[in-house]
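Incident review: delayed structure delivery

Summary: a single-chain prediction request sat in the queue longer than the usual turnaround. Root cause was a stuck worker, restarted by the on-call engineer. No data loss occurred. The affected request and its eventual output are reproduced below so the record is complete for anyone auditing the incident later.

Affected input:
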Amino acid sequence: MLAGLVLSGTLVLSACSGNAAGGESQTSAGPGGPAAQGGTVQVLANAAFSHLDPVRGFDGGVNNFYRLIYRTLTTQGAAPGTEGTKIGPDLATDTGTPSDGGKTWTFTLKDGLFFETGAPITSADVKFGVSRAWDPEIGIGSPYAKQLIDAPASYQGPYKSGDLPTIATPDAKTIVFHLKKPFADFGSVVAQNTFVPVPKGAGAGTELDSKPIASGPYKVSEYKAGASLKLVRNDKWDAKTDPVRKAKPDGFQWTFDLDGATIDERMIAGQGTDVDAIAGTIQAATVARVQTPQLKQRTLTGLGGCTTYMGLNTTKKPLNDVRVRQAINFAVNKQTVRDAVGGSTLAELATSIQPPTVLGRVDYDPYPSPEGKGDVAAAQKLLTEAGLTNGFTFTLDTRAQPKMQAMAVAIQQALKPLKIDVKINIIDTSTYYEVIGTPSQQHDAAITGWCPDWPSGATFLPPLFDGRNIVAKGNSNLAQLNDPAVNAKIDEISQIKDVNAANAAYGELDKQIMALAPVVPLLYEKVLTLVGSNIAGAYLHDGYSGGIDLVSVGLTDAGK
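Output delivered after worker restart:
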């Protein structure tokens, strides 16, 4: 998934309780003890969610939020570390039954499932919700349904094309998916947001972006776009059907469009309703201030489970020349990029595409330089070979957020000695991923990030580099790489039935892709966040871009 706009809207990445890169790691904070029943959790954020419609949003922050109001056939666990990324049943009774050599998957719905309207959730509703992913206008989120489920080439979703025949619903409790090819981990795929049930006929256009139809423990009671969001209990949700969501608070209140420094000051002071608040990662300038013993008790920190990178658009000249892309990889000073986000406390230098938390990942550095500070001589040699001794100009997209702009400036300065003039294009945070995911609006490069949808290479390399998955909207292959050898290797790995062997093969594919230099891996970011003194049950979730797992957080004293 796209690296999240987690709570504060900054590029906060998935927290790793295992701490693969060394250093301290803490996955829970607050006064301790279980969360009480009741109260309202306050969430302070500097950017609104990308989309409330589950087939539109696909960054870690909104994925975390979706679990409060939506349910899927399966879902990730509710725990820190690897326990949190284990897939288990949600709406379905189990994680699915494969047949036909893994090309057909059958799921059975539990009893007692209802939408917030009181209408029962049926297999037809699940099918309709999944079918929406093919709509060319709204299906810009998770790509896995479209990539894996067999569908007519002309299919454009239920509103335009009607029924999707490759998803069968023989009765109200049974749903059968017919895939293009065997996929051993389809039980994890149906945990994606595109598998949220939607009542048949509902959700056209922007309908669900303004008023979601809840299947989870909470529903939207008030939404002021870009300003605030209030959740209250969904009384049609039955806890007996849901072993994952603890749903202790009575509600959640988001306040958006807050300055990052203001959020930090409020969280440090911890006054009024801010004792009940959570937020995203702190600003770099605040790091030193949270080292006191009192604040450390309210601190969550850990190595990220995602990769922050700069995508290089291989369709744009001169970036269509592999030597130019390799030169940029050599030249970028990753130390100054890390300094821009707050130094070693908040990030490790990245060398490979896959982060340390992905199973089968290989630790290697294809474009080494002393201390990661860049090798200008090696870069200049490649540019000379490419006939670009006098450099060139390219446009770099980044978000309207101080940290991201600082990263762009660090890249701009690192490339100046090569006479590469980097024009920085700043895009509003709430629409950033949608813009850069539209090839017609893409510039030469973009700073972004990617997190595993579950800890497998299958969720990292194919979404980013399979050229056959380049689409007009919701495109995750920002490099627009369409290399026959890479595509063939992805197909070869997809046939491996042993998941461990497949992950090892993806580790080697990482090297093959980086030889083509379609991206510049920049950082494996860390999370450092404060929680209010009345917050309980808070931990960083490996599967949701380092955000505090919203389905488990609550208050120590609900009447405080």
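Verification: The first helix runs from residue 60 to 69.
Action items: add queue-age alerting; document worker restart procedure.
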